[in-house]
């Protein structure tokens, strides 16, 4: 008889979210992992070599370093541009790293990273608006799971948003080499509710030379 120290709650799900689906790769159907934790898209060398179209293409060399989830280096033999079709749309010339086959990847040759997932999300939002997640959940649960996971790990999270901090005071002069606290206004949530705000410099905005904005995490 086998005994364990802890019991699993009765309402615990037996299965977690599904992140695997089927994607068309240059005319061939292929099982894929929709991975919101990967920034790049990869295919196995085995799939490349046996694909009737891709096998005729030469690999491009790259010096980009890829790291796995645990920080370990991920080897690859080159880069290949592939055409993907999923959710009724075609995404052409997607750069994909060709990686050695493993036991798991022999069954799931394609891994789709956020470089593709984010573009797909933008297209879905343009077509279905704010209800895009509900639409995808009905037809492609694996994509729904990955899109939800992606939104949770982005700035603002699934329910948050990205905005600007507006300086609320008068014009000031900060001496060279000095720091100064300033008060700003942010757009929060519903009235009389508390929310957490991360303040940081916007890389797309050019600040005056020598001016730095310190990162700040605060409850407002």
Automatic annotation (TrEMBL):
Gene3D superfamilies hit by this protein: Acid Proteases
Superkingdom field: Eukaryota
Classification via InterPro entries: Aspartic_peptidase_AS, Peptidase_aspartic_dom_sf
Parts of the chain that traverse the membrane: none
Protein name: Peptidase A2 domain-containing protein
Lineage: Eukaryota, Metazoa, Chordata, Craniata, Vertebrata
